[in-house]
Specification:
alpha/beta; five-stranded parallel sheet; 13 helices; 352 residues
Length: 352
């Protein structure tokens, strides 16, 4: 597992507890009942669950929240009972429930006219098993979700999921680690620099990075190459961001308009101080419907944006239309994406 330093620290404690509980019990500390891994999709929550069980060397029961819910009322609750019976027989062990929002959704939602008896019974049984009258000694319950806000309050109280571990998108050093793991069995050319790839992929999750490495390898095979080059990886990143290049070229007049439009974006982006440097400008249409695109690649991860940066971002988005006005004296219907983003950004600047 790469790029999950903070989450790793929290989970190591559980591993220590499962390996040598006497150190903790001598101090009067109890094993945390449940650990909820929270984070965006693709950040490695399920992977961390597997890794924790592997490191602790204890049995691992894993299932998805949707495995517990059936059409027939009472089936889910009996499955939860069976699961915990098996787990207690094998304790100490880890029970991992992926996508727990499938059964753990809040029960008292406003406007819920019809209730789902099956899901509620399943949830009630889970609540009782986690912290009811019968102790479940040595059974640690781990669960993963990317929607913690919909979970029932009773599920999140201390004594049940009393520990929430955030698994955020990886930082630049984290992305470097993840890329090193995924490129271990890939034949890389000498020009491939993983630190550069980590630098130009902010906001990418671990799953995205794995996908980029795989796409680059597929592109290398397609051109009968012996190694994956930096160019393959650049194309793979573009394929993920912008979509596959279409083979049919645009006619000359349209291409000329697209070229000036993209040059407008690129020119404004390169002249404004707060904007990310321009990495590539393309006038080859993509499968996602863009006639061309200007790709800006940041030099570092950004956590805060000031008003100037946001205003300049709007200027870059409008740069394409401005260029069309200057050269052709008229606007076209192209680039609906720019037109949508500018009012959205302006509205958010005012309201948020």
């Amino acid at each position: 597992v790469g790029g999950a330093e903070e989450a790793e620290v929290e989970l190591r404690e559980i591993i220590d507890f499962l390996k040598s509980p006497e150190r903790f019990t001598a101090m009067g500390a109890k094993l945390p009942k449940g650990v909820l891994l929270v984070g965006p999709p693709g950040t490695g929550k399920t992977l961390l669950g597997k890794a924790t069980a592997g490191e602790a060397g204890v049995p691992f029961f894993s299932l998805s929240g949707s495995d517990l819910v059936e059409m027939f009322v009472g089936v889910g609750a009996s499955r939860v009972r069976d699961l915990f019976q098996q787990a207690k027989a094998k304790a100490p062990c880890i029970v991992f429930i992926d996508e727990i929002d499938a059964i753990g959704q809040s029960r008292s939602t406003v406007g819920a006219i019809q209730t789902n008896d099956e899901r509620e019974q399943t949830l009630n049984q889970l609540l009782a098993e986690m912290d009811g009258f019968e102790p479940n000694n040595g059974v640690v319950i781990m669960a993963a979700t990317n929607r913690p806000e919909v979970l029932d309050k009773a599920l999140l109280r201390p004594g049940r999921f009393d520990r929430q571990v955030q698994v955020p998108l990886p930082t630049e050093p984290g992305r470097r680690e993840i890329l090193a793991i995924h490129t271990k069995n890939v034949k890389l050319a000498p020009d491939v620099r993983l630190d550069r790839i980590a630098q130009i992929t902010p906001g990418f999750s671990g799953a995205d990075l794995a996908n980029i490495v795989n796409e680059a390898a597929l592109l290398a095979v397609r051109r009968n190459g012996q190694q994956v080059t930096m160019n393959d990886i650049d194309l793979a990143i573009e394929r993920v961001v912008a979509g596959l290049q279409r083979k049919t070229p645009l006619n000359d007049e349209v291409r000329r308009k697209v070229a000036y439009h993209e040059a407008g974006h690129a020119l404004v982006a390169s002249l404004l101080p707060t904007q990310d440097p321009v990495h590539k400008v393309s006038i080859i249409p993509t499968a996602k419907g863009a006639l061309g695109y200007t790709l800006q690649m940041p030099e570092e991860d950004q956590y805060l944006l000031g008003e100037q940066a946001l205003r300049e971002r709007m200027a870059v988005l409008l740069g394409g239309r401005a260029a069309e006005l200057v050269i052709f004296d008229e606007l076209s219907t192209g680039a609906p994406n720019d037109r949508e983003k500018v009012p959205q950004l302006a509205r958010r600047m005012v309201t948020e």
